[in-house]
Amino acid sequence: MIKSDSSLFSAYEWDESWTLTVVFRSNGSVRAYGDVPPEIYQEFHNSESKGKYYNSFIKSKFESVEAGKVTDEEIAEAVAETAAFVYVDEQKALGNTIEVTATLPPLEVPNPRSQMMVEGLGITDDDIRAVDPSWKGDAKPSDESIGEILSKTENVGMSVPKANRTELQTLMEESTGLASVQPVIRSAAEYTEVSERLKRKVSVRDRLFGILDPVRKALWDALQVTRTQHGLILDPIDTSIANDKKALNAWNAEQQRIAAEKQRADQLEAERAAAADQQRRTEELRLEMASQHAEAGDSEMAEASLFDETIVAAPVPVYAPRVVVDTPKIEGQSFRKNWGARVDSLEELVLDVAKGIESIRATGSLAGHAPITMLDPNMPALNKRAKADERTNLFPGVVAFNEPVLAQRKAK
Fold it and tell me: Fewer CB within 10 A of the terminal residue: the chain, N end or C end?
């Protein structure tokens, strides 16, 4: 996950499955776009206005699904996890800087970030000359040279360049001091004081970001290299595995269907045989009763007994033998249940939730109806409507509010 300064997004991420995940700054909602090619992602990642690029080339071009919401704390954790996931062998605290030592496997670097990437990775002039003796330091090293350097299975230090460490130390100390001051506003003078301090905080933050972001970008590029190679190596076999599982599941499902049909047919046949046997025993009972009346000299009752519907033999429950599914037993292979749900009719679900609400109000229980938690309001749409209408009462149960956002430009 990459933290973003975009006014539209607070963070975004792209992975080897070609899924682009974006987090909207307004409410923390998450949306995942599928089948986004790497070249589209790179253009989005490098664009000066990610919001404009998103609206023009991603929003209506790729299928997407809502993926919940995240908080600022969750975004920060995801960003930290991304920065750490680059084959990290060890992390060392060096004063006020953190050096991450990463072991990279033999990889080919696609579209490296030239000199910025070289500086962020801590590659020295000697490292470059070791693979490119003709390099004289008067131009950026070739892409091939950078790729060969990074392809060595030796540790590559990820750290803040030495030239920026003194400034970083000073800014960190100032940042700590500024962050420790809590805003207290009881007068116009204190309002002005807090505003001036805010200007300085924004300036310090921007300078800190300018020092740290190249390192973060270098880590991200290295991660993208590993993910690209990961996909190139594993995608073919992963696809084949998925196809095999799909074929095995389809065959097993067909065997289950065949077995279920045979089970029903066998049960019907067993029930027909049981009904015929009951009819036979019923006729024997009636004949026996008629014989008894005839022996007693009551010919009228004897005849009536032959057609007496109250004389019925007791039914015997029958169950057809269980049909065993003919699936070979393979060591290490099993089929587990994987239940899911889909909404076939949102209208019917809403109506059932309404019945549940009425039931709770009347009896205190849902009475088997769906709870209101099964419905999730479309907050992006409601926020958009609130911005468009600029009024408090949008719909029953929905109240719009205005929460002004203070914009602070950098001090000149």
Answer: C
In sequence order, the 6+-apart residues with CB closer than 8 A to the CB of 291 are 302
Cα 195 to Cα 198: distance, rounded to the nearest angstrom: 5
Strand partners for 29: 69
For 78, the token pair is 């995801």
Q: CB-based contacts of 289: which residues, under 8 Å, 6+ apart? A: 305, 308, 311
Helix ranges, 4-93 (H): 38-46, 50-57, 72-84
Q: How far is CA 306 from CA 277, 291, 315, in A?
A: 17, 9, 19
pLDDT for residue 112: 30
Q: Between 73 and 86, whose confidence is greater?
A: 73
Give the N- to C-terminal CA distance of the chain in Å, as an integer.
Answer: 32
Phi first, then psi: what are they for 332, rounded to 5°?
Answer: 80, 0
State the Cα–Cα distance between residues 346 and 323, nearest whole angstrom.
39
How many CB atoms are located within 10 Å of the residue 405 CB? Answer: 4
Q: Which whole-number Å values give the CA distances from 179 to 48, 155, 172, 173, in the listed order?
A: 29, 36, 10, 10
Instruction: Please name the helix (run of DSSP H) or strand (run of DSSP E) that holds residue 399, with its range, or none.
Output: strand 398-399
Any long-range contacts for 236-241 (C-beta under 8 Å, 24+ apart)? none
Let me know if 1 is exposed, middle or buried by CB neighbors in 10 A (0-12, 13-18, 19+).
buried
Tokens of 277: 């046997």
Contact 258, 250 (CB under 8 A): no
Instruction: Output the CA–CA distances (angstroms, integers) from residue 86 to 56, 129, 332, 338, in the order listed.
Output: 32, 25, 33, 33
Whether residue 370 contacts residue 349, with contact meaning beta carbons closer than 8 Å, is answered with yes
At 173-221, the pLDDT tens digits run 999 999 998 999 999 999 999 998 999 998 998 888 888 888 778 778 8
* Residues across the chain: 412
88 SS3 class: strand
Instruction: For 95-137, list the strands marked E by DSSP.
Output: 97-103
- 134-143, 248-257, 384-393: which is most confident: 248-257
